Description:
Number of helices: 7
Distance between the termini: 46 Å
Number of strands: 21
Oligomer: single chain
Mean pLDDT: 86
Radius of gyration: 21 Å
Strand content: 25-35%
Order of helices and strands: EEEHEHEEEEEHEHHEEEHEEEHEEEEE
Shape: globular
Amino acid sequence: MIKTLSILLVxxxxxxxxxxxxxxxxxxxxxCTTHEGKGSDAKTIYNGxxxxxxxxxxxxxxxxxxxSTHFYDTSKTIKYWSSHGLAxxxxxxxxxxxVDFNIKKSFSWANGKLEFVFLAACNQLNKDGGPxxxxxxxxxxAKAVRxxxxxxxxxxxxxxxxxxxxxxxxxxxxxxVKSSWIKANEYVAGLKGKEKDPxxxxxxxxxxxxxxxxxxxxxxSGNTYKRPNSSSKKIIRFRKKVExxxxxxxxxxxxxxxxxxxxxEQEPIKFEVKPTCExxxxxxxxKLSLDGGEVKTQEVRLSKSxxxxxxxxxxxxxxxxxxxxxxxxxxxxxxxxxxxDALSENQxxxxxxxxxxxxxxYDEYTxxxxxxVAIVDAEGVKYTAxxxxxxxxxxx
Length: 396
């Protein structure tokens, strides 16, 4: 059976039984920066859980006083904090808003109702001179925080609300908070034109080791697992290892060529999944994404050729018109998704998955708005997002 979510369709996965071991359904969402024209990521998350019976507060610094008290509060299940941030632990809003403080060198978010934290701010989950360990220690305790989602370097600015929207879509399909955050950021980093925000590739997630890393929000499909207690001492971090905040830049743009050469036509492909596809499918107009399950912790070592074969096989198995997607091995970009011990002095990281990107190349030109992005772990392809066009040459 094909499971599909789109603007018009509701996926059958939402009917799955919910097993919840979480405290409750409350949220505090705080937006400390301006967001004219693109919407508030904090409000998107707040509204996204309201239809699951959540209550709480959504504060915007343009109309409300937001202070460090809101940051340290543990009275709500979910905390979403959106602000600027420095590796020193300084959190601040835009100049016209009175939000500016340094996080304490030691504090605890445990022993309350707080279970899920989102830090939509730069550098907060940075291990190299950043406050990562402070946050990791804040998760530990008798009633521990399950997950902290954020960024290890610069965070998205223009794309933060797009990340929030995509996160809610994936989380509502039954995916864990951890994997939903990883996939939402991969999606936005691979978007087209003005919607794209390459800084989304700097995502990071902190979780406890064990099955609790696959926790869902209370009331969402899937297993929430037992909440960690004081016996849980190990916090692991997942992040995409982006060297120098790699941003893909085409040296040539087909769109420029098309403006001067009317013999070229670009027609977006409307993808369909095969009847045998067992993945969750999200269809956003001309962009299709397939969800193949949770990103796991098993170490993986795959060559470029092996990754290429995995993605080709997956695309051919699940897409009706896969022959129209010309994936060129020599042009693929591979970036590791790594895991480390957040509390250890050891800088060692193990590769648990790969982010694989294929740009669309036509006649040696890069089709700027087209690409395929996949996540591959030891079990296979866990996520794919594709937007592709047919390029037609008219007869003179």
